[in-house]
Structures are given as structure tokens and as C-alpha cells.
Amino acid sequence: MTTTDYIRTHEKRFLEELFELLRIPSVSADSKYAPDVARAAEFIKTKLLDAGADTVEICPTKGHPIVYGEKIIDLKLPTVIVYGHYDVQPADPVNLWETPPFEPVIRDGKIFARGSCDDKGQVYMHVKAFELMMQTKSLPCNVKFMIEGEEEVGSANLGQWVRDNKKRLAADVILISDTSILANDLPSLEVGLRGLSYIQVEVSGPNRDLHSGVYGGAVANPITVLCEMIASMKDKNNHITIPGFYDAVEELSAAERTELNKTPFDLEEYKKDLGISDIHGETGYTTLERTGIRPTLELNGIWGGYIGEGSKTVLPSKAFAKISMRLVPNQSSEKITELFSKHFKSIAPKSVTVEVHPHHGGEPVVTPTDSVAFKAASMAMEQTFGKKPIPTRGGGSIPIVALFEKELGLKSVLMGFGLDSDLIHSPNEHYGVFNFLKGIETIPLFFENFAALSKK
Ligand code: BES
Ligand code: MN
Ligand code: MN
């Protein structure tokens, strides 16, 4: 039976199974969902075993477990590690979902549910592609699955687990489907991911909330101070003002920048899609460069004072913000967190005190385009999309990729099938049925090409 026949025959069941996984609210950030996260891990384990894995283990960590499974057919053959995550981002704000986040439905050929694209739908393509290769007796190399439950909260425990399991993670390459393509008729392969420094800050003024009339005008307002401090962290060219921030940033050559800017991109379409009249960013760089090769600093949340119904005249005692910085080669997350922290403290006026709490971080990566694995992926996509994929530099982060390189000496291939418009992390996240099935069709070809090219 051919791959396409197998997919056509089992398509309905594949989707039903994915729906079952999507119904489990495996939100890693919120401890009230811990039993659901555990249930999602069990589900992946069962499905990997059903598909034909030799062994599958649920490996506990200090946080959520890692599902690890193997199918070893011949130790002389190459080995592929498939990495993905079964945890999802919180569904909030839930009232903005057209249909409930954990009740998947198909509308307009798209599967709507939290995690449909990021990353359950893409992980499940691998489970089904594996089943397909087992059933059609076409698995050409060994495969190891490492599906974690803490990616969306920074993979704090995966690093230790990888160090403790170096031996059994012996492999030739890591294959990850957790990124996007440019469009369904424009396949692409991400060859870079940004790093991350994520920080929470707290600004404290008076020792208690005050009456904004009795004290207002005479005491520093922590919310105002925080806003001013944050605003000062970018200059008029949207250049970040933290001393030393750009020191390690790798500048691309003119030729490399020209190449990157050849990526199909329609600015009018981009603005229209986002409902904005103008774009915004660092002077001297295009939108593709601003998200692909330049670091940035974004405010993710800010709060303090009274935000309930009606009004309350209050001069708050405290203000808070969550701030993330996306990093590019060769910035170091630790170093940037340190520079931020030092700078933030140095610009605080005497009228307040500040605290800086680092959350999590991750290093930027660039993956090779001249490797056997990249060629295998590129060929596979060309075979199924009918077009050679374009290498792109993604703006998102998968911090664990740099860690795999460091700890295991293994490079990753980022063969994702999502679209930037899939609303990952947002209300109404969705994933195209086309993309789900295209993934299942392409993955076995990656294995086939990788095994064949590795022989040469
Ligand atoms: N799958 C995403 C990363 C991604 C999305 C890469 C789209 C490329 C294109 C991943 O699940 C994610 O959301 N990562 C977080 C980092 C993490 C430490 C919370 C991110 O990028 O914000
Ligand atoms: Mn993801
Ligand atoms: Mn994500």
C-alpha cells in the first residue's frame, strides 16, 4: 500500500485520535491541569505503543513527564530522534474563542483547538507517520521519540533529563515539527530560532496603596515610573538602550541580508492581516530581518493598581511587568538577563525600589543547510509540495534545540507544517487538515531520504 493510500484509508481515524488528544487540557503553566498533563502523556505513550514502538516510558521529572519511546530496527542504521511537546499554552482569554478551546471542531478545513498546531497536531503527525511506516513495512532507520510536557514553560527539567540519558539518546539527528511554513503553496524550512530571556519586574513605591487625592502629586506612582523605565529602554530608532545589549549580535553580510530578503513577503497583506495601518521596528531593518535576525525587547504584560469594574481612586504601592527579550546569535541568555537586570536597577529613580526576577531563557540557534538531514527534509518537502522549500529564519524560540546541540552534539531539522496565521498561543488557534495530512505524507519521505543519503 502506498503512503497516500494508507493516509486516505485511515484519515478519519487519524483525525478522531488527534481530537481525543486535543480534548485533554494539558496546560503546563497552570498546576490545576497537572492531572490532564499526565493524561496527555499517557495518551501519547499508548498511541506510540499501538503504532509499533518497542518500548515507551513515561519519565517523571521535577515538573511534567517526558514521554520517551523507541523503535530500534538495526543498530547499524541511522537513528532519528523526534522531539515535540504535548503541553499547551493556557487558553485564556477563553471568551474570545468562537468554540471552546478543548472541544476541537473542523471549520473551513481547519481544526480549531488549543494545541491543534502548537504542538499536538504536529506531534501527532509523527505518531501517525510512524504507524504508517510500521504498517507498510517501510521504516528505514531507527527512531526515538522524546515528547515533553514543559516546552511552553521553558523546558526547565528537560536539560537535566537529557544529560542523565545521553547514552540512550545516541542518534544522528533531531527532527522537530514545531515551526511554520510560509504558505501552503510556499513550503519552507526554518533554519534559525531566536533565543529568549524572560523576566518579571516589580516596582515598589509607598508601603501601601494610597488615596490618589490625598497623596497624588507628592509621591511617585510605581505604574508611571515603570512605564517611563520601560519606555526609556528603546530610543527613537527602536534600538534597545541597555548598555552592551548588541555587543555579541552577529551582523549578517550584505549578501546574506539580500538573500534573506528574497523570502516572499507581502507587507500590505501583513498589515491587513494584523489590522494595523503601519509597521513598527528597528530603523534600518526590514520586517523579515526584524523578526529573523535582530533581537528585540517586548512587554508581555503589565499590571498594578485597580483594574476592576468602575473606578477606584488609588495611588498603588506596586507595579509589575513581564518582559521578554528575543535573542539572536551569538547573544547569551544569561548575559542578557544580567545586563537587563543591572540596567533596570540603575535607571530606577530614588523614589521607588525595584526587583528583577528572571523566569526562563534559551539560546538562539542556526541550523545547517548543508547537512544530510537538511537535504533529506528539503527533498521530502519538494516531493510532497512540488516545490523546493525556502530556508527561513524564524522569530520564535525552541530553547531546547541549542541544548541538544550542546549536550548531545546533535543538530536539529525544523520541519514544521504550521502557518504563522494559525493563531498559536492566541484564541482560536487552528491547524489545517491539509497541513496535518501533508505532514504525515512528508515525514516518511524524510526518513527514506535520510536513510538513503546517509548510506552514501
Ligand atoms: N512552537 C513554538 C515556537 C515557534 C513557533 C517557533 C512558531 C517558530 C514558529 C514554541 O512552542 C513556543 O511557543 N516557544 C516559546 C518559548 C518558550 C520558552 C515559552 C516562544 O517562542 O515564545
Ligand atoms: Mn511549540
Ligand atoms: Mn508554543
Structure in words:
Helices cover 33% and strands 22% of the residues. The protein contains 12 helices and 20 strands. It is globular, with a radius of gyration of 23 Å. The protein has 2 domains: 3-193 and 364-455, Aminopeptidase (3-Layer(aba) Sandwich); 196-249 and 295-362, Alpha-Beta Plaits. Helix 1 packs across helix 12 (433-455) and helix 4 (158-164) runs parallel beside helix 11 (400-408).
CATH architecture of the largest domain: 3-Layer(aba) Sandwich
How many domains in all? 2
Output the CATH class name of the largest domain: Alpha Beta
* Class per helix and strand makeup: alpha/beta
- How big a fraction of the residues is strand? 15-25%
Total strand count, please?
20
Give the biggest beta sheet.
6 strands, mixed
**Alpha-carbon distance between the termini?**
27 Å
Rg from alpha-carbon coordinates: 23 Å
How would you concisely characterize the structure shown here?
This protein has 456 residues and is α/β, with parallel strands linked by helices. The protein has 12 helices and 20 strands. Strand 1 and strand 2 (66-71) form a beta hairpin.
Main attributes?
456 residues; Alpha-Beta Plaits; Aminopeptidase; 12 helices; 2 domains; binds ligand BES; 4-stranded antiparallel sheet; 6-stranded mixed sheet; binds manganese (II) ion; alpha/beta; 33% helix
